[in-house]
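Friendly challenge for the regulars: who can give me the structure tokens for this chain first? No prize, just bragging rights.
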Amino acid sequence: MRLSLIFFMLILLPVATGVHAWLFCRDNLPALTQEAVARLTAAGVRDPVVDVRFFDIAVSGQAPDPAARQKALAAIRSLVPLRLQPGADRIHVLASLKAKLDKNTLSLSGWLPEGDEVQNVSRLLAALRPDLALRTDELRTAPDVRWPDGMKSPLTANSLMLKPILEMLRVPAELHINAKEDAIALSGLLPDTALKGELVAALAEIAGAREVDPAALKASPHVLPAAFAKPELLAAFVRSFFSMPPPRSFDIGADGIPHLVGVATRQMESTWLGLLRPVTGAAKVDARFTLVPSLYHFPGYQIQSKLPPTTLDPLREALSGFVIVFEAGSAHIPPLEQTKLATLAPTLLAAGPALGLVIGAHPDPAGPESVERDIGKARADAVMSFLIDQGAPAADVSTVVFDPVPAGSPSAPASPRSVELLIK
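First reply, four minutes later:
Bragging rights claimed.
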């Protein structure tokens, strides 16, 4: 009897265990599953999935960062009587990359898989926007981070993760050139390095002893295309404009309107506007020029004469403010003006053949240009002939007609019907 009872109990034990397991699964597992999902959600896991098989549990989902992942796994391990087996924790941190642009500083944040991807992203962004300071102290890596489906290392400019950042960083082209006595400085953003190279080379040709400083001029394919970015045409204008004495500046931005500041003659202004036209098209030019009659009237013009100071200084003083005034419509030197020239002739003769002299006529800006230029040339020639007849050296004397300057301008002559003598 006792043996039969034992035998019966042995048969009943598996049945009771199975019934208990069935009752556990029916009554407790759904609640434990819900609790596991709640714990994962509380830890920040997105799209949590829980698979409970009796006492074993497997979890998956996406955590925002490694700390949240560890917090989620700790919460599951503390959920008794369930057991989280090795390899059943399929909670991942997907790689993420965010950017914040504050003035000239770009700050990156997020998580990337372990490796050299932070350095790769830094190099890529620095090449595209070399004008920005880059901060990556909040961009970290961890072994639990994995790439989203369809993405892999290394990231490139075409990677989906980088595209929103690159679009945010796209900037319009701009160019600024400022010439001073000792240097020509370039700054701005250009869409390609070829244009930068041509501009620097063009300025180096005419800089002389001045330094050409392109350190603040950046070139990047991430700069938006610009209508003015025409290497040969823009370089031709820059070469001509900055060959004249400083100070002067050239600025152009996204609106395509060039801004010019400096000293110029009317002829120079016309030449520069002609060179700019194929560069900027129909854009109106903002030209703020101080007009002067000739190159010899530029502030700071350096006399080329090799005369010794003992001869040059008295001669400069004698010619300062010296003009010959003519009557309207006439190229004949009035008697009083002939007397002035005769008095000056000995000083010119004393300078000797090394003297380089420019005899220039000021046309009347209110008269017809062609007529004024013709009569101006006749007046300058008349003064030169008179001085030569008086014995002045003729080896290096030239006559010109200066460009007209509007009356009232700082550089306008006292009389538009006059001839001025200048040392070359």
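The domain at 2-92 is CATH 3.30.70 (Alpha-Beta Plaits). The two ends are 141 Å apart (CA to CA). Your move, everyone else.
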